[in-house]
């Protein structure tokens, strides 16, 4: 009977490890399957360091929440022109989200994305929206909450 319990326990552990490895492998494959890259701001970027923007989310890749951390990306169509920002869309790296995308105009405080950020959701992004060479901005976890309907 002890051997059966031990065998069952070992099987359960093996199955759990195997499933976890498969999820991680699937994430890595989906994370690297994107043809697009996040364009960071470089030291010569003349765009503002921090901006408050208003607009509609037209594209939202949500990232992964839970034990594994991966950020998301959004494409925001600006509803108001921003002084010093010549584009009608802004591309933003976010924390992960699980709710429905907010369909209303939202206001976000964004900061330049440099690629040097230490937070896991800025380092690992599962799906990237093609910004067509426009540098990405980033938002905090608090600002990320505005991108979804609770």
Give keywords.
single chain, OB fold (Dihydrolipoamide Acetyltransferase, E2P), globular, alpha+beta, 26% helix, 150 residues, 7 strands, two-stranded antiparallel sheet, 3 helices, five-stranded mixed β-barrel
What do these coordinates show?
This protein is α+β, with helices and mostly antiparallel strands and 150 residues long. It is built from 3 helices and 7 strands; from the N terminus they run H-E-E-E-E-E-H-E-H-E. The chain folds into 2 domains: 1-33; 50-149, OB fold (Dihydrolipoamide Acetyltransferase, E2P) (Beta Barrel), CATH 2.40.50. Helix content is 26%, strand content 25%. The strands form 2 sheets. A 5-stranded mixed barrel has the order 1-2-3-6-5. A two-stranded antiparallel sheet has the order 4-7. The radius of gyration is 19 Å and the shape is globular. 23% of the residues are buried.
Fold-level CATH name of the largest domain: OB fold (Dihydrolipoamide Acetyltransferase, E2P)
Which class of secondary structure composition applies to the elements?
alpha+beta
Identify the overall geometry.
globular
CATH class term of the largest domain:
Mainly Beta
Number of strands: 7
End-to-end separation:
49 Å
How many H/I helices? 3
Strand proportion: 25-35%
> Roughly what is the average pLDDT, rounded to an integer?
83
Present the secondary structure layout.
Elements: H1 2-32, E1 50-61, E2 72-78, E3 89-94, E4 100-101, E5 106-112, H2 120-123, E6 137-138, H3 141-144, E7 148-149
